[in-house]
Amino acid sequence: MFKKIKLSDNLPKHIGIIMDGNGRWATKRGLPRNLGHKEGVNAVDRTIDALIKFNIKVVTFFAFSTENWKRSKQEIDGIFDLLRNYFINQKEEFLLKGVKLMSIGDVDKFPKDLVDELRNLQEKTKNNDKLIVNLAINYGGKDDIVRAVNNLIAEGKTEITKEDISSHLYTADLPDPDFVIRTSGEERISNFMIYQMAYSELYFPKVLWPDFGEKDLLKALEIYSKRERRYGGIK
Ligand code: FPP
To answer: What is the pLDDT of residues 90-119, one digit of tens each?
Structure first.
């Protein structure tokens, strides 16, 4: 069925992914929640490889939201460890694959050594152009908008346009997401890129994030490729 897709046709340039279901994946197996997140990192790697294969140019993974601070310290520290190790271990891989790492969100609230590793990998990969992997960490869509408006006020603006807001969001250098996938069957946006998603196509597959792989991405792309985007207009 998938072979019918002509992958050069009508593909999203930027995909946002809300990686939901790690906790349920672990609980179903009687494992601690953090093992679900660990398996979630493997799904991130598989997805990056598949995105490169299908020539997608930008992906934003929602890895830690401004609301995730409500979780236990143990779970938060576990996610920090995964991120830190990821930044340390991906150097060669990202260079080999042509991945450029970016991030959105207020990372100043994160441990300094983790942020140092993030900045280090961003610097090392800044000239890559095969795929932009943008991590939303300590990110919230409402925070993003408030921060943009405050920066505009600080610049002395008294009247602002939509373009002013777009150019002051964390995503100023990225196209808006064409397609947002949330795994695990939950159908919510959860304060993801709310301003940028005004016209995004949405897709909510049942698969839990740790089980997500190339075939799930292909199915998603097939669904996207059949959608007709009208941006409020008519055909
Ligand atoms: C949502 O599932 C997942 C998260 C809040 C964390 C996602 C983080 C990772 C996969 C690690 C990120 C690392 C890299 C390298 C990008 P959930 O815990 O809410 O699942 P549940 O709804 O089943 O409990």
So the answer is: 999 999 999 999 999 999 999 999 999 999
Distance 129 CA to ligand 1 centre (A): 27
Check whether 230 has a pLDDT greater than 70: yes
- Cα–Cα dist 34/23, whole Å: 7
| Binding site membership of 59 for ligand 1 (Cβ less than 6 Å) | no
Which pLDDT band, with edges at 50, 70 and 90, does 51 fall under?
A: very high
Report the nearest-CA residue for atom 8 of ligand 1. Answer: 63
159-170 pLDDT, tens digit per residue, is 999 999 999 999
Answer yes or no: are the C-beta atoms of 171 and 188 closer than 8 Å. Answer: no
Q: How far apart are CA 32 and CA 44, in angstroms?
A: 19
